[in-house]
Queue: 4 jobs
Job 1
Amino acid sequence: MLKLIATDMDGTLLNNKKEMPKTTFDLVNRLHERGTLFAVASGRQHFSLQKLYGEIKDDIIIVAGNGSIIINKGEIISVRSLDMSIVKEIIELASVNPDLRLTLCGLKSDYMFENNVEQVLPSYLVESHFPVRKIIHTIDELPDDEQILQIAILDPENNSRANIYEPLKVLSNRCHLAISGSEWVDIIALGVNKGVAINELQKMLDASYEETMVFGDELNDIEMMQQAFYSYAMENAVSEIKKVSRFLAPSNENEGVIKIIENFLAMTS
């Protein structure tokens, strides 16, 4: 009996065109009927995930910002934000490379600097990843009561490890740097990751290691893989994820997540 299934989105559940399998919503409903809760655990912010899941967004668990916020059936149950002093340091360090694109992912909105507007970032990416956003010129324009959950940094040169992670890792003892793909590095509060969030859900749901299934493909999924017996690396996953996972799922292009869950339902019917 599985009590919790959690999946990453980009490169895992979504195909390379960022499309969700058509049967996802029906599958989620069938899981719930069986007493298994479905969670999405992504580097994306909650606004993006809520938009993707539309009519069932309040029926699932959303772990957004690599674990910086957890929303259970529409209710925020956990928020872990960055200290504003760290936010300012990251902005200053990243400004050395003018090609990098920073987005401050807040609790109330996402904030893009003037040089991050649609003519710089592809419009499809802006709409899909940051559907609720404001353009700012400086950090002083943030609302006084805003909390920054994550800083998402895009490298247009597609070399996030060299161009973002390496220059910023001097801050790794004060915040967590998560490589979310060849283009992205996400920066969150120290001690925050998808694995910590999954563990929090396991305690809340009384779900054991053996009653949890997870799917992932990138380096920011490593800690999550270590929280479940049924840990599935996608066929297209980076080698580091395959090393720490117990099982292999078909690629995101072949709806691997859906196929594995369908097999589970068939075996337990």
Job 2
Amino acid sequence: MKFVTIASKKDEAGKNIFRHIHKDQTFLNHYMIEEESINADEIGNRFNDYDFIIFATKHESKKGKPSLTVHAPGNWGKARFGGKKGEVCKTSSRFLKCLFNSLNKEAKNSGLNSKYNVTLEVTHHGPYLEKLCCFIEIGSSEKEWQDKNAGEVVARSIKRSINSFENRDYNDSVPVIGIGGPHYAPNFTKIQKNSKYALSHIIPQYVFPINKEMLEQAINKTEEDVRTAIIDWKGLKSKERQEAINLLNSLGLEYKRSNNVEK
């Protein structure tokens, strides 16, 4: 699989990350674009020679908590921040696991994990691409976006994850989708880090009620063969859990409760 890393000239965190990428002369295939990453719907055509696009960007939140995040892009409902309504992007559960674990290792090695929360986010925001992709982000305010240590950690994490993925380090992981829980997905974050399961798309509680099409997208837009969903058991109401289970049964997928998965 041929990877390319993309950042926007309008993105302070992306520029920070790229300054460290440029210092490493062995780091191949990285480019800056003019438009905001969440609006770069046509980028797949411009980088047609690549199989997987990694977007290196800022993460913004009202609380401003320092964070390093990884997630798949797409919209389960309205397209408030780029992309298409009700459309999610193609991604790889194994590469997401590889990237997230690389980020954890690099943050720990640098001591940055004492300051930054390393976390998954659920699937959200644009762009919409017909190409495998994911986001890795520095958050959540301008102070963190310009943090040289954070930029270096993310740059090293990207390189480490590509090397690890090419070495097939995560081929024995089990691809799954996640259902339920809040936006920063604390249970799924622990599962991604500590278990054999590799999470791709995550459908959070706040987009419920869900439907069959949403589940089919989560499955079909995952590069690997997904046969299992993990339900954040306490992250859904009883009615919502049953709603999810009924839909999974109709699709012939098994499910596991998050509290029964090693984390």
Job 3
Amino acid sequence: MHRSLAAARWRATALLASIVGAAASAYLLVEYVTGQPGLCLTGSGCDLVRASAFAYPLGIPTPLFGLVFYLAAAWVVLRTMDSKRIAGIAPGTALLALAVAGAIASMILTALEAFVIEAFCTWCLVQAGASLVLLVAAVGLPRHDPGDPDERHSRRARQQASQALEGERRSLLMTARLGGGGAVLAVGALLAMGATGGTPGPSPEGSSLAPAGNPHLGAGPVEVVEFADFQCPGCATVAPILADLAESNAMTLVFRYFPLDSIHANADASARATEAAHQQGRFWEMSAAIYARQGAWKDLSSTDADAFFRSVAADVGLDVEAWQAAYESDEVAAAVDVDRQAAEGMGLTGTPTLFIDGRLYSGSLSEDAIRAAVAASAPAS
């Protein structure tokens, strides 16, 4: 009886893990298919993962694989109540094999996010957690056929075992219904929150959102203001997209500094380095070089970072002595601080943050999505 109770608990755990994984996958799949921005607790990580080369293997959105996997896992969990084998394999063994494959796939995807994309998707992490819980439950679940007559020699024992299995089956089905219904409601609520958050609202800064003294690029009819941190991987990804649109005169790009000092040790120094270059009219060359070499300076000590930025200034053809004086000046520090205070005053918490024609943009950071948003804001010809 004790072993049966333990098995029931492991089944319930595996089923709930499958439901959570399926819900996260379904939520991501809707985002991938519709392009609708959603709730992301890891800053711009969700959009960066979705914009990566790993988001659509063979042209198929990755969350679709996750949804199929977790639905299959839920089906196998329910089958562990029966004695019928799956393709000649006991259901418990089939569940273990499936869980191992899912855990390995999740570890590979998480490693890609950590070391290749350098950004984490909130809901991918939820799926990874669900896959690990599923694996633990599958390991704990007995892998003998439930219908085998072990410890059930008497008629009464068999009847009791049958009644216990029927009670657990009803309990699991109720768990599936409640969990599935809750998952549907949760996914719907998250999508509604994403839709609300993705609707740009008026800028609280009004006409002061794009100061004339800040770096400008392009002469397009749509004004895009970017608050960015040079140590932010997302900003490095978005920068060439914005530059291409500005250089094609599809928009006018205005850059504003928002160094996130609490998480990026060299964010303020890199902002001062580019502002010092701006004083020589070379902001865009300096910013491109700093973004391109982000991996080389992001973990340096402050002294080494100072020397590194000086070498970059020399590489882009600046008057290094004038640059050095500006880099260390109160004037440059104040210019960076003005933008930082403006961002904090608007309640901004992450980078990159874009305003398109004065309205906050919360959509995907992929090239197609940004290009479409800019085109939608362009005046009719």
Job 4
Amino acid sequence: MTVNGADEKPVVVGRGRRAEILAWGEGRVLKLYEAGWPAEAVAGEARNSRRAYELGLPVPAFYGTLEVDGRHGLLFERIDGSPLLQVLLARPWRYASLARAMADAQVALHARAVPEASSYKEMLAWRIRSPRSPLPDDLKEAALALLARLPEGDALCHGDFHFLNVLVPSDPRRGPVVIDWDAPTRGNPLADLARTMLIIRAAPLHARQGLERRLWTMLSKAFGSVYLRHYLARSGRGGTTPRQRAALAAEFADWQTVNAAARLFEGISEEEAWLISLVRKGISG
């Protein structure tokens, strides 16, 4: 493998479920997908990444596509920093400031309207219906009926906004940077927020039993509380009267239910029983 024409082995600076991140010349990284990953999926992420950068969103600069040894790749600006999750684990006492910074980034995304994009609700419906999902059929039908009643929107929704897809740059003058633009949609901001909060709540399920899980439970609860409160305040969606706040809480709970139903499609074994219980409770509640 060559880097910028030189016969040298590239340095791996990160890994994901379907790609590795390689240092690629001065100030750049290559997101190189595993062999056999569909070219159309990479092309879609390339379009999304370019569009997000052109909109002036807090994202890495995008420089185009490359093919290396038959594998498809995307070339980005290299961000000197760490995923927010790593920063949180290294400095848990900073949870409140990190939660506010991450919430500000999501508010910035939701402030953009993208009426031309595909629908978040349609994506959720497709995942809920999927035979890959272990959700019982009666709960699938109930979740789909609930989803149909929820309001659409045309805000830019990242679709997978969480700890690992937000980078904290080493330069304190630069705010959080959002990565992994493989599935953005248009939708109701509360739908995208509900998925983020669901992932925050699920974090302790990925920790070992015992002290580690108890610590994660406390940290995710504290982080999530600050996150949700700050997001609602900064976005102006928190409501000003008790009736508005109650309506918002009810709608948000419904978005959590349908997002839990859709997340089962992803086959995350640690979360399966918990997600099914959330759907059952949300439908019956």
